[in-house]
């Protein structure tokens, strides 16, 4: 399993607009082999920004890398630069290979 995260510093006062961009977009993830789950996370607030992260879980690192080379990826990110005023700098990518998973009772 592989977890891919992007951290976003969103300018104070732009949180609702940022969330609307994400909530209204077609991610195309449901069409991608190896995709497991997506989360949009809202984190702590600083003086000039609020931290957000996109968090995707993939069956493997190879599945994630295939997604980044796919038409679905290009379609999902089309127009991403249109929202630059919401961001304080570019997103910061972090990728993790899962070494342990502990599940809760269902």
UniProtKB/TrEMBL annotation:
Coiled coil: none annotated. It comes from the Bacteria. Transmembrane segments: none annotated. Residues 2-96 form the ABM domain. Pfam families: ABM. SUPFAM superfamilies: Dimeric alpha+beta barrel (SSF54909). PANTHER family: SIGNAL TRANSDUCTION PROTEIN TRAP (PTHR34474:SF2). This is ABM domain-containing protein.
């Amino acid at each position: 399993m592989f977890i891919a995260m992007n951290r976003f510093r969103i300018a104070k006062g732009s949180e609702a607009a940022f969330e609307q961009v994400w909530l209204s977009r077609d991610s195309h993830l449901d069409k991608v082999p190896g995709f497991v789950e997506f989360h949009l996370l809202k984190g702590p607030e600083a003086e000039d920004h609020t931290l957000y992260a996109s968090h995707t879980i993939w069956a493997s690192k190879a599945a994630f890398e295939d997604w980044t080379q796919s038409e679905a990826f290009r379609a999902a990110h089309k127009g991403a630069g249109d929202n630059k005023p919401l961001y304080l700098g570019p997103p910061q990518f972090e990728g993790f290979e899962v070494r342990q998973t502990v599940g809760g009772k269902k």
